[in-house]
Predict the 3D structure of the following.
Amino acid sequence: MDVKGQAITMSWIPSESVRNWLRGGFELGLSHYDDPPRDVVDGPEDVRALRDDDRFRFANVLTGWAEFGDGPPRGGYGEDSGLLMGSTTVRARVATVTFMGFGLPVLQAEPEITEDRVVLRQTVGGRTGIPLPRPVKHAPYVRWQAPIVWTTLQLTLTRDGDRLVELVGASSFPRHWVYGSDGRLQSKSGLAQLQDWLDHSFGDRTPWGSQDSPALTVAAESAAERRLSSTIMRGEQTPRIVQVGKGEDVVRQGEEGTDVHLVLDGVLDVSVDGDVLAELGPGAVIGERAALEGGRRSATVTARTPVRLARVPASALDAGALEEVAAVHRREERPPGPHG
């Protein structure tokens, strides 16, 4: 049996992920934020077209093949595998200049081949083409070049025809979206830790030195939540941005409240009667059930990591859009009520 598969990450900079002194450079036009990538990509050629349209900062494209027959299994990397590095556009008063990113060598592990599976692992990354001078926490304590960004993808092809995609390592910034072999968005990095990236992501603290960083990933939100998130962030009423510390509750089961929250960054646990039933990450919507069903929270939502949220009153949102999200959450319930 012949099995082919692909795994893709696209990495981009959401506007809410940049803060403090670096945000000033973005506002001056020294760099730019990115709109979210598409929910579905058709394959490597489609990703190249998106790169040419400046839709992301860099992409990890991993394609692979496996042959399972009467003899020993075989497998390897496809010719389309590798790095697609984007660019940084600087918009000054008199001119616009584009700097191509600097790509580092693609790291491909030797295929792990057993009787029933072939496992492929690939790391790609680089840095921006413009400098980012800053103090850092390691010698030489001042850096001129930008920190390194990367993702490490793992693609597992099985004798049964399964194609499993995992993000097993990544830089702590920017946001990384993960696409399965069907081209659909399946998961995303849960945290975009800008200061950690600025302080540490260079030298030996990268895969081209001596270490990778584990990736904290969460399942992608629903299409209904993505549509509603655009309304929350770009609607007539400006959302209130809320910071929640690790271990703190966003909402509590049984309490009254009708505000709706959009997760901008971080990972949260959802529990009913003390049992953790689900996890939420960037793009998830919290609180639509209470807004539609009497104003009382049906679950407790607790920050597993530091979390940033956008909060708006339910009255600022279309009831039909809230019901669409609630319908998706009802189908996911085990048992009822995991979304507050």
